[in-house]
Amino acid sequence: MFNARSLSATITFCIACIVSGCDVKIKPIEGGKEIAQEAERHKVKRLTQQDILNAARKAGDSVVALATQQWDARLIEQLTQGGVAAAMPHCQPENYEEVEALQHKYGAISRRVSGRPRNPQNQLDAQVTTTLQRYTQSQSDSAEVVALNQEELLYTAPIYVRQENCLNCHGTPGKELAPADYTLIQEKYPKDQAINYKKGDLIGMWHITFDKADFVAFLNDQPKKSRRRR
Ligand code: HEC
What we know:
The protein is of the alpha+beta class. The chain has two domains: about 5-40; about 50-220, no CATH class. The chain is built from eight helices and four strands. A four-stranded antiparallel sheet has the order 1-4-3-2, sandwiched between helices. A hairpin with a 4-residue loop joins strand 2 and strand 3. Helix 3 runs antiparallel to helix 4 (about 95-105). Heme C binds near residues 87, 92, 114 and 204. Heme C binds near residues 91, 161, 163, 165 and 168.
């Protein structure tokens, strides 16, 4: 029931609350700044399809640049030290540890493909034949990115015989390619077709697929969605 006593008790209580309320200091939340920065970092960016393709192109370029730099350095070192036999195990730049680490960061898988490969696993499939033909005709150095479907993006870039030392293993047998070295190559790759090249020829193509969801997660600094593995 409502009476004068309970009313005055309520009023006293309210006044006490208001007065003590004035004394309460608002303490900053510990680590508040860091939390705000974290929240900002996790805010999902609005990315258009074009933004994603542009970013994939840059990411693909960085994988190719790293792989090419390491590949050239290893070829020079190994060929000087132990010739073709020593350099052979270093001819898969897409599998170098540093390159794998970088592509993993992007949710990408890189391969090198060719119309007439040394390793049959590097055979170009029909899907990208026209892309390779375009590179052959244009002699262009620039990479391309397309959406293969809703889930995957494909980055391609041409690979030219850019150095004389490529010919130690891809040149003409009996000329730049020493017969003993050619025998060594054929023992390991009985179906080898990657010979008779000249300096400047197109010898293959980088073929890097991106899992789109993983790549967008990378761009947003968030954990990967899929568990895609090679
Ligand atoms: C020491 C020998 C050697 C040298 C030097 C060499 N390669 Fe190769 N190359 C190989 C071998 C072996 C493979 C097969 C690798 C594999 O099993 O995937 C290969 C594969 C390739 C492929 C993948 C397609 C295919 O044929 O299987 C490309 C592209 C390629 N080489 C380009 C080059 C270029 C460009 C250079 C010079 C920068 C070069 N190679 C130098 C031995 C060599």
